[in-house]
From TrEMBL:
Keyword Iron recorded: no
Domain HTH gntR-type: 2-70
Extent of the signal sequence: none
Record keywords, A-Z: DNA-binding, Transcription, Transcription regulation
Chain segments annotated as transmembrane: none
Species this chain originates from: Levilactobacillus hammesii DSM 16381
Descriptive protein name: Transcriptional regulator
Length: 360
């Protein structure tokens, strides 16, 4: 009985928090819930009673059960010394350096970080936002999740804005929100990278970009803009678009089809270094040499990219500096000072993974 009761309670609570049942919406009747969960009336009443005590549900005599305004008092007039940080990833790639930079500034100011990880999933973003707000954080530093797609969590962001909780974005920003941000000129940087390949003599370049994040869309736009300045060879460009949840094998199967073409690409531009490193390994497995047969470039200057064989040509990402700037900007927001958004101009980092195509 305990397991059944907890299952019902958790399911109803999850449905309320996820927005399936909006504030003041009528919930199914006890009989309907009994049928839905295949449990007794006692189990339903026990689960609903707990949710009522926890202020997720209220009753109207003779009218049924309704969703209560479960949002706690999230206003920041408290003594919290905690800054919430929500990123798409925490433990790998460039994120440890970003968080390290934040922590240096935040800890010096007498605050500490509360970390959350969305795995680039909107449901997990919602849970992280609720956890942070329930923890009464003094402010939020957020990397947007699947920022190129419609976001189902705008109700929470609107409440954050209404409660005047300091928020700043890193790496990307939701265009419909006016929070300050620290990000990179992804369009201009990618164009600079493709221009470099074109100047080396490459005409047929394959671009591979993650398009559920706005960074990937911007980088793809930079790829296109570079070719727009060379209309005579623009027909030789090719694109592969993917989303964060796609299996790598789906990408490699597409790459393989291009490599089999008689007019195969002489260079591959990847969304980031995290993609470029396994793509380089795959290209080598197909019998091609890098860069003699195919040049490969990435983005972000991931620490491991310099130790690859050959070293990966890429674009710099400020990482630790981004974290430090975000920390300083958060203190400005906490002190109600004006804040100016920052956009970095990445430097081109040329290593051995690029060279002139054979035909040049």
């Amino acid at each position: 009985m305990e397991n059944k009761y907890q299952r019902v309670k958790d399911s109803l609570k999850e449905a309320i928090l996820s927005g399936k049942y909006p504030i003041d919406e009528k919930l199914p009747t006890e009989t309907e819930l009994m049928e839905q969960f295949k449990v007794s009336r006692y189990t339903i009443r026990r689960a609903v009673g707990d949710l009522e005590t926890e202020h997720f549900i209220y009753r109207i005599q003779g009218g049924g059960m309704f969703v209560q305004d479960w949002h706690k008092d999230w206003a920041t007039e408290n003594d919290s010394k905690m800054i919430g940080v929500i990123t798409t990833h925490i433990a790998d790639y460039i994120f440890p350096q970003i968080i390290y930079g934040m922590d240096k500034i935040i800890s010096d100011g007498g605050y500490s970080l509360l970390l959350g990880n969305t795995h680039n999933n909107h449901d997990k973003e919602r849970k992280n936002l609720i956890n942070m707000l329930n923890s009464k954080v003094a402010g939020l530093i957020i990397e947007p999740t699947q920022s190129a797609l419609p976001n189902p969590n705008m109700d929470l962001y609107q409440e954050i804005k209404d409660d005047q909780i300091p928020v700043l974005f890193i790496n990307a920003a939701y265009p419909q929100l006016e929070f300050p941000y620290v990000t990179t000129d992804d369009v201009g940087a990618e164009k600079k990278l493709i221009d470099h390949l074109l100047q080396m003599g490459h005409e047929s370049i394959l671009g591979i970009f993650q398009v559920d994040d706005i960074q990937g869309v911007h980088r793809m736009n930079g790829f296109v803009q570079a070719y727009q300045e060379h209309p005579d060879i623009s027909y030789k460009s090719n694109l592969i678009m993917y989303q964060s949840g796609d299996d790598f094998s789906r990408i490699t199967s597409r790459i393989a089809s291009y490599l089999k073409d008689n007019e195969r690409p002489t260079a591959i531009a990847c969304y980031n270094d995290q993609l470029a490193i396994p793509v380089m390994a795959f290209v080598k497995e197909q019998g091609f040499r890098v860069p003699q047969d195919i040049s490969i470039v990435g983005f972000d200057n991931y620490q491991m990219s310099q130790y690859m064989s050959p070293g990966l040509t890429t674009l710099n990402h400020e990482k630790e500096i981004m974290g430090e700037d975000a920390g300083r900007m958060m203190f400005q927001l906490l002190n109600k000072q004006p804040v100016q958004s920052i956009t970095y101009e990445p430097e081109l980092v040329i290593r051995q993974s690029t060279g002139a195509p054979k035909s040049s």
